[in-house]
Amino acid sequence: MSDGDTTSAGDQKKVNHFEITAGGILSAVQDEFQGLETVDDRHVIGRHIVWHEETESTNDDARRAAETGEQEGLVVIADGQTAGRGRMSRTWTSPPGRDILFSVLLRPDVTDLPKMPLVAGLAVARTLDAFTDQPVTLKWPNDVRVADRKISGSLVESGSSKTGYFAIVGTGVNVNMDAGAHPEIAEIATSLRTLTGKSVPRREVMRKLLFEMDCIYSSPEQMDRLVSDWSSRLETVGQEIDVRWGGEFIHGVAEGVDETGRLLLRDGGGELRLLEAGEVTTQLSGQ
User: Fold this and answer.
1) Cβ neighbours, 10 Å, residue 200
2) Is 170 within a domain?
3) What distance in Å separates the CA atoms of residue 28 and residue 1, rounded to the nearest whole number?
4) DSSP string, 197-234
5) Which of 27, 26, 22 shows the shortest CA–CA distance to 42?
6) How many CB atoms lie within 10 A of CB 264?
7) DSSP states along the chain
8) Quick check: 19 pLDDT over 80?
9) Model-level pTM greater than 0.90?
10) Average pLDDT for residues 280-285, to the nearest whole number?
């Protein structure tokens, strides 16, 4: 993507891209997310926001920033991605300008790295509570679901640089897309617009989401009870399921999660398996 013409550092005006820093002059590019860096008195997340009309991958953009020493809290948002990806090497389907696609750079304590997918999932669930009366649930390991259909997912990638470990939390939330217009996901996905029957302002969803994510991540008390709060919404627990884990398919009953969100699965032979990652391919009730 071309950045176009750039003015002075104080007025970072670009044709298809702008950066927002607290107290700075905003780009003239029309965008729903302008000014979010200065609202709600957040502690960490969203102190620096970069918006793209289009980029290859917000996760890749955030990773490059991390590797050059960017402080945690950077948020990269895009109206469209040409190489957006989800878990299991899947692509993420989203018409440009309809949904929320963003990545957050975090530098947690290394012991908290495994919890970053939980931060994203719980923050999204709490955000959606404000926009729909329908129950919002989580499907292990990272799907957010409403009315038995997926509305959000996250991909967390970690790395290290000279400034230490980092995590890139990439998240997509279906806000105004029409899942029915995309045959590949029509039967498994939904959006806020589908649920409410009306268009939903992406700015308000993004504002609430950044607030919820910051409240969780920047609060030691909320981080301490993160797994408990997250697992209370987990529809997978108690279900008879099939899990794809690497090249292996495991059938069993999901008995719970451990202190970092790893799945405790009792397989057909009675062995309790501890799964760090994988995909629940079948839930025999409440798919």
Assistant:
1) 16
2) yes
3) 18
4) SS---HHHHHHHHHHHHHHHHT-HHHHHTHHHHHHTTB
5) 22
6) 16
7) --------TTB---SSEEEEETTPBPPSS--TTTTGGGSTT-SSTTSEEEEESSBS-HHHHHHHHHHTTPPTTEEEEES-BSS-B-GGG-B----TTTSEEEEEEE---GGGGGGHHHHHHHHHHHHHHTT-SS-EEEETTTEEEETTEEEEEEEEEEEEETTEEEEEEEEEE-SS--GGG-TTTTTTB--HHHHHSS---HHHHHHHHHHHHHHHHT-HHHHHTHHHHHHTTBTTTT-EEEEEETTEEEEEEEEEE-TT--EEEEETTS-EEEESS-EEEEESS--
8) no
9) no
10) 64
The answer to whether the bond into 201 is cis (omega within 30° of 0) is: no
Phi, psi of 49 (to 5 degrees): -120, 130
Query: Which domain does 29 fall in, by range?
Result: 17-231
Residue 255 lies in a domain: yes
CA 263 to chain centre: 20
Number of domains in the chain: 2
Same domain, 198 and 218: yes
Q: pLDDT for 222-270, tens place per residue?
A: 999 999 999 999 999 999 999 887 778 899 999 999 999 999 999 999 9
Whether 273 and 265 have beta carbons less than 8 Å apart is answered as yes
Do 108 and 162 have their domain in common?
Answer: yes
Our CA angle for 152, 104, 236, nearest 5°, is 35
